[in-house]
Fold this sequence. Notes:
- This protein is an alpha+beta fold.
- It is 58% helix and 6% strand.
- It is built from 9 helices and 5 strands; from the N terminus they run H-H-H-H-H-H-H-E-E-H-E-E-E-H.
- A 5-stranded mixed beta sheet has the order 1-2-3-4-5.
- Strand 2, helix 8 and strand 3 form a beta-alpha-beta unit.
- Helix 2 crosses helix 3 and helix 8 packs parallel to helix 9.
Amino acid sequence: MFTFLSVNAQCETVMKFFKDDIYTSKELVAFVENDPQKAFDSWKLLYNEKTGLAKSIDELNLVSKNLDEINKAGGYLKWKSLSKTEINLTFSTLTKSNLNKLDVSDDINKYVLAPNSKGGAYILPGISVEAKEIALADEVFALTNQKCIFPKNNLEAIEGFFEDGTGFTMKELESNFQQFYRRINEMSSKIKKDKILNGLVQKVI
């Protein structure tokens, strides 16, 4: 499993620490087997910064999905600090209750902004969300200020929640988005007409 790393390229002591950490759980072994190089790079980032999270499967998954962004930010802790500033969620009691029913975390601090999201799509580390879902969540957020939370892969009955705890499927989300979009266009048109009428009235007066 570790043949991808040459002894010349990596310090033997670091490799020993890596192996010691990885063999502490089946989840970590599976994580490394999936993509050994990426797994090692993710582990090393957490290990070098002495985060104490080098054996956390959730954090390793998170880091592996954001390696480029983390390196650009200058390291895991700096990237995490930047990510925290973007998190602005408020979980209602209903949201927490629904998350608990799914047996997923209701800790706001564990949720991160989905890759490439403009502020509308939040996920737990390790969750995959399609580009279309992220784009739609961002549009709904722009129109309604409601953030979408995607807490788990492959949900059958629902695909996510709004901050207020309302569950949705993508079909419902698309339908609601179209309704929101039409409603806002209607309001926008009405406001424009009112302004024009007010302007004409003022001229007459």
